[in-house]
Amino acid sequence: MHLDPFARLQSDPWFLSGLVLASVLGLAALIGPAMVPYDPHDMSFTPLAPPSAAHWLGVNDGGMDILAELLLGLRNTVAFGMSAGGLALVLAVLIGVAAAWTGGWADALIMRLADVLLAIPAVMVLIVSAAFFRPEPLSLALLLALLTWPSTAKGIRAQALVIKNRRHILASRQMGASSGRIIVRHLVPELFPLYWVGFAAKARMAMFMEATLAFLGLFDPSRKSLGLMISFALKYYYLDIWWNWLLPPVLALSLLIMAVTFLAVSLEKRFDPRLQETL
Amino acid sequence: MSLRVEQLRVVYGDRDHGLLALDGVDLELEPGRITALVGESGSGKTTLGKALMGLLPENARVGGHILLDGRPLLGFSETDSNAWRWSRIAMVFQNGAASLNPVQRILDQVAEPLVVHRGLATEQARKQAGRSLEEIGLSACFHARFPHELSGGQVQKALFAMAMILDPEVVILDEPTAALDSMTRSFMAGLIGGLRPRGKAVLLITHDLELADALGDPIVVLYLGQVMEVLRGGTLFDTPRHPYTLALGRSYPRVGALKDLGGIRGDAFYRRLHDHPAGNGAVHRPSAAADSAQEIGHRATRGCLFYPRCTQAVEECAQAPVALEAAVSGSLRCRRGGIVSRLQLEGVAKRYGPVQALAPTDLTLQAGEVLCLVGETGSGKSTLAMIAAGVLDPDQGRRRFEGRDMDQWLRRDYKSLARRIGVVYQNPAEAVSHRLCVADIVAEPLQIHGPLPDPAAAAKRVAELLAMVRLPSTQEFLKRYPHELNLGAVQRVCLARALALSPGLLVADEPTSALDPSLQAKVLKMILELQIENGLTLLFVTHDMGLTRKIADRIAVMHAGALVEIGPAAAVLNRPLHPYTRMLVNSAGTGAAPAPVRPIRPAGCAFAQRCPDAMETCWHHAPERIGADPHSHEVACRLSATELNFSHDVIDVHRQATNPIDAEGGPKG
Q1: At CA B217, angle to CA B213 and CA B223, rounded to 5?
Q2: pLDDT at B76
Q3: ipTM score of the complex?
Q4: Which domains occur in chain A, in start order?
């Protein structure tokens, strides 16, 4: 399994297109806001001005530059997806490995808890808590992670159970290695492919969730977001602004989800079919 | 008539630079018994012989008593000594020709004691001397020759005749068979054996351990002037109890033995008087671990003299002198009560679902031995080996490691047990993590049992280990991953890893199966070297009977999850008792098992289906469990058990052959 898992991916069109899309969007999210000369919160421009040399995508109803708004919204969405995906992955690894390693009643208990969480619709919980508590985006990402770790943790646990009984782990145990050492040095690195798959799935879901919540207006209205942009643009559907105001955030969101989906699919195809999990 | 030696102590040289040659030796020579005295050069064998003859050089100071029929022999003047010397105690000297007068004819020299001691006339004495020379096979044509005109064997015969001419009661033979060809050696052995029925008390001083084992009873093992062990005849090679005796026996090139020669680590040193606690000088404290082979053996100790070279020594061995104590048969000077058992398995069994992989099995591994576990695939070899290594827990039964309850040890302090056992797994590619490079794999046990002093020391140890298994330790190689190496190299990396902590027990499941013959030879030599230097005990699982021949001290044969035969390697291979072992040894045509004739009852012998000699009883009654006794050749077979005694005689053929003229023929002692 040590063979570089990315070697064969280089000839996979899914992976390549996903990678290109992700790079472009990631770069835009990362440095885009700094490249636009306007502050997205600056309301000093002519409302609903069409695209021009000064404002490439025009100005919205509040007199804000749409491009600046789009790039900041993209950054927020990506950041939310990454943090929720990352948190979920960390939880999944900790819980999955702990369950596999300890086994017995602790394992059974953790897995039943996972089943319960799988049965709870994360969207509903998120909408309700966002509406009632108005939390920070990061808290919401954590909440999402807390709700969505089970599917990844189950995959990690299953694979950890297999690897746990591999000869080289037994050999390490025989040499007197402590559980901590074996987990850190042998078990966690062995599970490496699963992390990509798990992270991609969770991040994609989180981005979609963020857009949904913003669209429904459950985030702070001053927080720039793709979902919020779509929601505002839709109010002016009768004007001829769909291509410069509505389309960009929809396209950005779709491409973002596509990029992550392509990556997740290709990674999953590449790694063991036994590692399937719901995308 | 008997000659008794009590607390004999001989020091050569003056008080300051004294050389302690003998230290408190007790010995009793009885009529009709041959006492064999063995030990390395410098152990004081010849000094003892000379002391009995009163022939020690002037600078020797003697303490203790030598009593002939209760009368002390020590402290008499030269003239007094002459009264008993040669007429009652005679000696065949070492280095034959040199102890004869080069300008006197043989006949005259043999006749001389008759003239001097008995006052016979020259002519009469010559006649009698001629007769005795002819009796021992030196015909008349040689009698008038000078010593340099005779062959080594003829000189030895002449010396023997000269010693026996006055019909002494006590005969001391110093290296009577050294430098003789095997025919002459057999002849001399016959002569010596012939002294027993004549009621002579014989002291046989020899390097020839096979001769000592065959003729001597008791056999006295001397090391640096101290008696280490006294054993019964015929047990020197088979059941030695002192580690020194074992190592000595392993160093001796026996015709019957199959295994390569071993040796004893380090060198014997001479004991300076001031090194010894009885002297008044300072005592060197040996450090816990010997650093180099040269150093071993050159350090004096307050405790056991063999301590620096002993592979099973513990700290307390060096603390205080050890007394010679009576043992089961003979006596023994060892703080640890003789060779310790490294691992004892009592009734361990393992079941995988409906399959009984291992029936309750006993097995004892002694410190410093190589036990080969042989048998077909699925016979439970690996299961037994992994239980022995502590990797697998048995369903039932008990394990003891170095005298401690192993299961308890595993639960309480896994780590300290882990560093005493090295394991090489059957499939090397699976046994290493493919995410670690060679350097990390070999260093893993060092890291686990760290802390390592510094990275350089760790790198040095890794390079050392890789060199042991004949792998390079270039940066390029150290950074390679297992999948970039061939299987043989991975196997050697596994072996290096198993040896990293210098374990006392190495459990190796086919550790050389992927190596080509030349590499395999080198790696096995290295393992045997560790056996000699570190007292490594090896449990070696293999299919390869040829390999077994070269490395095993003992062989255990497994079939269908049970031991069917166990014993010394030579005995098992040359004279297999179990029909299954015979199949394995003559491995031709054992591939397919005959179709089941009838189902075996759970109580029956598992081999009955395939056994060419199965009897009715074999289908109903299982053979008895074997394996607990590390000293005997046992077989789990109803048929062969009855042949056991017979076959032991056959194994002993070689021993008998060394003294064909031995008049007694029957068992000794």
Answers
A1: 70
A2: 61
A3: 0.72
A4: 10-275 (1.10.3720.10)
